[in-house]
Structures are given as C-alpha cells and as structure tokens.
Amino acid sequence: MHSHENHGSAKTYILGFLFSLILTALPLWLVIQHVMNKALLTVAILLIAVLQLIIQFFFFMHIGEGEKPRYHVMALILGAVMVFTIVAGSIWIMTFNSQVH
Amino acid sequence: MGEKAKGFFVTGDPLIYGADVSIIITLLGILVFLTYFKKWGWLWREWLTTVDHKKIGIMYLVSSLLMLFRGGVDALLMRMQLAMPNTHFLQSQHYNEIFTTHGTIMILFMAMPFMFALFNIVIPLQIGARDVAYPFLNAMSFWLFFFGALLFNLSFVIGGSPDAGWLSYPPLSELAGSPGPGQNFYIWGIQISGIGSLATGINFLVTILKMRAPGMKLMQMPLFTWSVLSSCITIIFAFPVLTVTLALLFVDRFFGAHIFTATGGGNPMMYVNLIWMWGHPEVYIVVLPAFGIYSEIVSTFSKKKIFGYKSMVFSMMIISVLGYFTWVHHFFTMGAGADVNTFFAITTMAIGIPTGVKIFNWLFTMFRGRISMTQPMLWTLAFIPCFLVGGATGVMLAAAPADYQYHNSYFLIAHFHQTLIGGVVFGYLAGLYYWWPKMFGFKLNDRIGKWAFWTWNIGFYVCFMPQYALGFMGMTRRVYTYGWDMGWAPYNMVSTAGAFLMGIGFVFQVWQILYSIKHGERDLTGDPWNGRTLEWSIPSPAPHYNFAHLPEVKSDDAWWDMKNHRYGAAVPNKMKEYAPIHMPKNSGIPFLMSACWFVAGFGLTFEWIGVGIAGLAGVGICLLARSFQRNTDYYIPVDEIKATESSLGRVV
C-alpha cells in the first residue's frame, strides 16, 4: 500500500494518452478514406496495432520497472503465445474454411 | 396500459404475469422489511459499501444461489415441455428464450459468481492475508456482476428475453435475426459483469503472487490456491476475447456494421471462432477451482498429505494453458478442413491426460487413508465416477470424424452437463459444505444434507443418462416438440423425472440451510474438520482483520505442521503483542458506479441514447471521484484487536 517506486509523471501519461489517441484514429481514417489497397491496409493496421501495444506497455504498464521483472517476462512470453494463437490460429482456421470465398 | 407500455413490458403469457406478480410482492416485502426494522443504514454500511472479501464472498454466494434457482426453473420448464411435447405448455418462441437464458445464467451468473464466492471467502484466509490485493476493485467486481446479472434477468419481464442461444451466434443474433431489445440485454448484461470477472482474475492473481504469508513459497501453497491461480491466468487471457467479440456484435447491431452479418462482406463464422476462444477456456476457468476444492477435501478427510502435489500443480498449469488450444472442437462441423480438425482433435484429447493424472492422485490420496464420510467428502466421491464418464464421452466427442454424428445432438447435452454438474457444481457444493463453518460459524445439518446429496445424485443420472441415448436416436438440441412416432417420449419422460429429483435436491439444500441456521452444530474451535491449511487456524467466522498475527509458514499444509510441531497459532499463549492492523476503508463508489453502468446498459439496450450517455457520464464521474479520494485506509487499534480476540475465545 506504500509505494516508493516511480510510476511515471503527468507528462509521460499525457504523452502516452496522445500517442494512443493518434494510433487509434489513424487506422480508422485509413479505412474510411480508402487510402491503400486491401493487402497493404491490413499490414498497416497490424503494424499500428503493434505500435499501440508498445506504447501502452511503456507509458501505462511500466514494463521496465518493478523489483521482480521475471514476472513481467513470464507474463509477456505467455501473452505473446496467446496473441499468436488468436491471430495465427484464426487466420489458419478461417482460410481453411471452405465457406470463405 | 398504453401502446408504448405494451411494447415495453412483456405481455400475453400467464407464466410471465405470475412472475410479474411475484417480483412485485418480493420487492415490496423487502422494502417493507428494511423500512420497518430500520435496516437501510445497516444495509448500506455493512453490505453495499463493504470492501471486506468475506462479505463480498457471501454476497456472491447468495446471488449465485438465486441464479441457480432461476436457471433451474428454466431447466424444469424445458423438461416439462419435452416430457409432453404436444401439449404446447411452452410456445416455440418461449422455449427458445428459456434455453437461452438457462445456459447464459448457469454459466455466467451462477457458476462464475459461485466460483468467485469461494475465491473471496477462502483465498485470503488460505494464504494468510488480511484482504485481497485490491479490496476496492474487489467490491467493484461484485457490483458489476450484480448489476450485469440484474440487467440480464430484467429482460424476461421488460423488453423480452434473448432467444438466440447461450452463445448467440450470428446471423440469428444480428439485427435482422433478432430485432428486439432481448439480444441487447444479453450483450450488455454479459459485458458489464464481464468487466468484473476480468478484474477479479487480475485481483486474485496479484493477491496470490504478492500477499502470501511470510515464508509461504509457491510450492507450499495449498492446492486450492494453485487452482485459483491457474484459473485466474485463464480468465486474464480469455475474458478480453469475449468482451471484444460482444463489442463487435454490438457495433453490428447498433451502428449497422457488417462484421458478422451474412451479407455485406461480414463473416458469421468469425464470431463462432472468437466466442469459443473464450468459451472453451471458460469451462476450464470454472472447473479448475473445483479440482482445487476436491484436492483440499480429499487430503483433509483422508488425513493424508495429497498424493503427487507437484504433479497436481503441473497438471493444473498445463490445463490452464492447453485449454486455450482446443476451441475449434466446438465447431468441427464448420468444415475448416482435415488439417485444422486433426490439430484440435489431438489437443483436445491431450488435455485429458493431465485431468487423468489428477484423478489418479485423488484416488492414491484416499488409498490407505483414514477416510471420514462427511458431506464434502460425499460430493467429492460422487464427482470422481461422474466426471470420469463425462471425460470419456468428451474424448468420444473429440474424435473429429465421429463428432459429425454427435454434433448438436442430446449426446453433447448429456456430456457437458455431466462435466459441468458432475465436475463444477458438485465441486462448488463440496466447497460450500467444507467452508460453510468458516463463513458462518456452524456446520450444515448432516441428515438433511444426505437427503439432498442422494436426490441430487440419483436425479442427475436419471436425468442425463437417457439423454446420451436420445442423442444416438437422433434427437437434436433446442427442439421444443417432436412427434410421438420418433420413440423419444419414454426417454424424455425419464429424463424429466430426473430433473425434478435434482430440483427436490435443491429444495432439500435450502431447507438444510434454514434448519442449520437455527439448529446447526456450532463451530467454536475454528477447526471443525481437523484441517491442514491456514484458514482453519483462526476463529469461525473469521474476524474482520482475519489474522491477529500474520502466520509464519514453514512447510506445506502449514496449519497441520503448526499443530504437529506446536508453533504459531497452535500455541496462542506464546504469541507476541498485537500491533495495529492496516485495513482499507469502505466505499460507496463501487455500488454507485456499477449502478451507473446499469443505467448505461439499460439505455443502450433500448437505444435510448440520452440515458446511455447519462449512465456513462455517471461512470466517468465515479472514476474521477475515486481518483481524488486520498483517505482510503485506517488502522485498527490494539485495544480493539484484543477485545475482538478475547470475545472469540482466543487467549490474549
């Protein structure tokens, strides 16, 4: 309940918030404005999503901090496995699906 | 009644009118009771604003038993209809609504809160902590669940119940298939309570990792604590998927998008894919803590250390991760192709291995143990054969080619009720009987409990064994009527009789609780079962601060070790002086904020944008108010601790 660790300043929080807003609005704008073709668009959205993830990790979740970073590493590895399962698994399952044209 | 009110309230069904009347009478009864006995202040101070994990656990428990009653009544109505398929006891639409609410309520509003009740009541006591890591968030979780469940249940008298099945597949659950508010009730009821479930998962993960008593290493934790840890890991990875999936469905319905529609470039199968990515881990979320409960009970009542502790831990962790890789077995028949189906058939069969390991460990723990046949032990013994059959039929279903035959049939219904009742419900009931004295300070009556046990168990087999046969005879799920020439009628009649037996078992349990409040055997020692873990080292019910002294843990089965080697709480007169105890303050914000969520959910359900925005604004104001609260904790003075401990009969 008494914390002496550094949990970031108001400046980093606001900066992170602004970055997140931009990275959320950007893909929406790309889709609505039809800026790119479909394949390029998909890659762009995925890249922006990864960027958003990194921003959240560092600005809000303070990934480099804490006295026991091994919990972070374990959680991140498991999270990576899960995300890979969700994304790659879905793509694999849905492209195999004979109903998809 | 005006035209508008006619669309708003559900009309035209005598069953619903009966429900309306009983709801109004119950509400009036509660209001009159609270006002007459001047209990409003008590209700607010002691319950609505509490952040005490024990009280939150009790509120979870009461809610889940009420939901068990509602879901059970739904089940009995369906069984009545299927026993007399041509009497039109229920119309087809009404039947659809009832199987939808039965499934949703039993999983999300009965099993989940029952599980959270046991998390809350047991975990801090078992690891020697004075509360959870985030007590305020814990209260938040409960009230979000409560208002989510309230919103969902409201649908059957206001607006109409959802009717697209408990997982609400599109395109049926899309606007074109389900135009009314029922489906919105489903989305918002689950979304609001789902935020709470996710928060509870995080809360207990942190509690277990960070708040253990001094000296308790990970590999010395009780197995129930391990099971909760593994369940929480699964919650954290699975629940966000549910939230996103339902949010996308809402976007489709509210903004007219085409994510899961059958037309306009949408893909309904993506919904099925995503929802089972939550749905399958969900069954492991609820069954893992049940495994933990069985482990505690088997060890306590065999008077032995659990057999194969390490393999128990590893198998639970394997289940919690591997449970994430099996979801496609719910839709083998989608036609994803042989490669996909083979992969998921193998992962599904593989998950039977750690489960089998656990079964053997329980059996070996009992082997040459001094077994006492208490109520928790009875339910545990009943679980083993029941879950074994459930698991075996599960492996049958996991064989993808054969699944094309079983899919969507009553064989499936029988299988999954066997694992969820035989595994989860039996487990939670065993846990309820086991920890009841710790919650309330008295044991539940044995004689009535045995009546409940046998009616439940016999009723279970009478109800579900015929359904395996019905599945083979071609009866598919979710049919409300069938011709007499199908030959299904006798089996359905038997099954319905079994369902009513289980209903009687539930009535016995209610009677048992009411009877035991007055006549139950009081627990004055705090250790009525000669337990092995720390929750039994303190008085029953536990004092507000749980542990007057934080226990020093030196081995596994910490309390058993203290009793045998005479140290710690086992020799109270050798204890040090008390020190002031740091505790969190009560707060009304969780209740108010969840109420605002309820308003928002209700508004969005009926697409009353103003109400929805007002509710969400209320949520925002509550968040702001909380972030400016500085005075959130206090210290219990030594005198008060002394007074409480001596009133509980503990030496000062």
From TrEMBL, chain A:
<dbReference type="InterPro" id="IPR050968">
    <property type="entry name" value="Cytochrome_c_oxidase_bac_sub4"/>
</dbReference>
<keyword id="KW-0813">Transport</keyword>
<feature type="transmembrane region" description="Helical">
    <location>
        <begin position="12"/>
        <end position="32"/>
    </location>
</feature>
<feature type="transmembrane region" description="Helical">
    <location>
        <begin position="73"/>
        <end position="94"/>
    </location>
</feature>
<protein>
    <submittedName>
        <fullName>Cytochrome o ubiquinol oxidase subunit IV</fullName>
    </submittedName>
</protein>
<keyword id="KW-1003">Cell membrane</keyword>
<keyword id="KW-1133">Transmembrane helix</keyword>
<feature type="transmembrane region" description="Helical">
    <location>
        <begin position="38"/>
        <end position="61"/>
    </location>
</feature>
<keyword id="KW-0812">Transmembrane</keyword>
<keyword id="KW-0249">Electron transport</keyword>
<keyword id="KW-0560">Oxidoreductase</keyword>
<dbReference type="InterPro" id="IPR005171">
    <property type="entry name" value="Cyt_c_oxidase_su4_prok"/>
</dbReference>
<comment type="similarity">
    <text>Belongs to the cytochrome c oxidase bacterial subunit 4 family.</text>
</comment>
<dbReference type="Pfam" id="PF03626">
    <property type="entry name" value="COX4_pro"/>
</dbReference>
<keyword id="KW-0472">Membrane</keyword>
<dbReference type="InterPro" id="IPR014210">
    <property type="entry name" value="Cyt_o_ubiqinol_oxidase_su4"/>
</dbReference>
UniProtKB/TrEMBL annotation, chain B:
<feature type="transmembrane region" description="Helical">
    <location>
        <begin position="15"/>
        <end position="37"/>
    </location>
</feature>
<keyword id="KW-0408">Iron</keyword>
<dbReference type="InterPro" id="IPR000883">
    <property type="entry name" value="Cyt_C_Oxase_1"/>
</dbReference>
<feature type="transmembrane region" description="Helical">
    <location>
        <begin position="342"/>
        <end position="364"/>
    </location>
</feature>
<feature type="transmembrane region" description="Helical">
    <location>
        <begin position="98"/>
        <end position="123"/>
    </location>
</feature>
<keyword id="KW-0813">Transport</keyword>
<feature type="domain" description="Cytochrome oxidase subunit I profile">
    <location>
        <begin position="36"/>
        <end position="554"/>
    </location>
</feature>
<comment type="similarity">
    <text>Belongs to the heme-copper respiratory oxidase family.</text>
</comment>
<keyword id="KW-0812">Transmembrane</keyword>
<feature type="transmembrane region" description="Helical">
    <location>
        <begin position="135"/>
        <end position="158"/>
    </location>
</feature>
<feature type="transmembrane region" description="Helical">
    <location>
        <begin position="271"/>
        <end position="294"/>
    </location>
</feature>
<feature type="transmembrane region" description="Helical">
    <location>
        <begin position="448"/>
        <end position="469"/>
    </location>
</feature>
<keyword id="KW-0186">Copper</keyword>
<keyword id="KW-1133">Transmembrane helix</keyword>
<keyword id="KW-0249">Electron transport</keyword>
<feature type="transmembrane region" description="Helical">
    <location>
        <begin position="583"/>
        <end position="602"/>
    </location>
</feature>
<feature type="transmembrane region" description="Helical">
    <location>
        <begin position="608"/>
        <end position="625"/>
    </location>
</feature>
<feature type="transmembrane region" description="Helical">
    <location>
        <begin position="306"/>
        <end position="327"/>
    </location>
</feature>
<dbReference type="Pfam" id="PF00115">
    <property type="entry name" value="COX1"/>
</dbReference>
<feature type="transmembrane region" description="Helical">
    <location>
        <begin position="223"/>
        <end position="251"/>
    </location>
</feature>
<dbReference type="InterPro" id="IPR023616">
    <property type="entry name" value="Cyt_c_oxase-like_su1_dom"/>
</dbReference>
<feature type="transmembrane region" description="Helical">
    <location>
        <begin position="185"/>
        <end position="211"/>
    </location>
</feature>
